[in-house]
Write a structure and sequence with these properties.
about 250 residues, alpha/beta, 3-stranded antiparallel sheet, 15 strands, elongated
């Protein structure tokens, strides 16, 4: 059985049973337990499962992992999203970019685009793009979160109210067919809503681990964005909801 088939079987069993034990699955498909452990480790890096003693389980859809864990999770997919977004940005563009691991990859991909005006609440985004002397980078003030270095709260929202940009590039903790764009914290949702309101065109970025899942706080409906960039085929129900909302979906390669 090929690796992709094993991964599909592992995910199917965990979804059905809630947990998966390594030994029975290895015996069933005729591979070593070490092979299944390697599969689980790779799937955990992609954010699809969570390792536990003797096996794996589904990650908690409402819990937010640490910043370091989120940066490692599906880094290849997030990098692809970053480059796909960079192709939508023109030299001389004005951008409002919120904080998030996917947008950190977006900022890294934008290093080759010249003469950008960037407004952000992310120290990582600001640091990545401020090194170019032809860029103008504005960092929203306010209290910085200890985990990801994001500036949130009313002072950050008041700061971005002074700008009007062509593109807002926003991230999400989850994207759901019914509940729309979701965040883990109310302060994050408030900032993202404000950012969306200061742009002519909103690009939503979310990797495969966020698709058709929910989080604690609703940010906005899918009809609040114009373009959605992800790294995998979108589940049917979500794809239909995006199409109904008039959203253009871009799958990064």
């Amino acid at each position: 059985m090929e690796k992709s088939q094993r991964h599909a079987l592992i995910l199917q069993r965990i979804t059905r049973d809630g947990i998966l034990a390594v030994a029975p699955v290895a015996s069933e498909i005729g591979v070593s337990e070490e092979t299944i452990r390697r599969d689980i480790k790779e799937m955990e890096r992609q954010g699809l499962v969570r390792r536990r003693h003797g096996g794996a389980e589904l990650p908690d859809p409402l819990a937010e992992p640490s910043w370091q864990e989120r940066m490692r999770s599906n880094a290849v997919g997030k990098c692809a999203i970053g480059h796909a977004v960079a192709r939508l940005v023109r030299p001389g563009d004005s951008l409002l970019i919120d904080a998030g691991t996917t947008n950190t990859f977006v900022a890294q991909a934008l290093k080759d685009v010249s003469n950008l005006t960037v407004v952000t609440n992310s120290t990582d985004v600001a640091r990545a793009l401020a090194f170019r002397p032809d860029n103008d980078v504005y960092m929203a003030g306010g209290r910085l979160t200890s985990d990801d270095g994001a500036s949130l709260g009313q002072s950050a929202i008041a700061f971005i109210a002074a700008f009007r940009v062509r593109l807002a590039i926003i991230s999400a903790a989850a994207v759901h067919a019914t509940d729309g764009i979701m965040a883990h914290k109310a302060a994050e949702a408030e900032f993202t809503r404000a950012a969306m309101g200061r742009a002519d065109h909103v690009i939503l970025v979310a990797d495969r681990t966020k698709l058709d899942r929910t989080a604690v706080v609703r940010v906005a409906g899918l009809n609040a964005v114009q373009t959605f960039v992800t790294d995998a085929s979108v589940p049917e129900s979500l794809a239909e909801a995006l199409a109904s909302a008039g959203v253009t979906t871009v799958i990064a390669d």
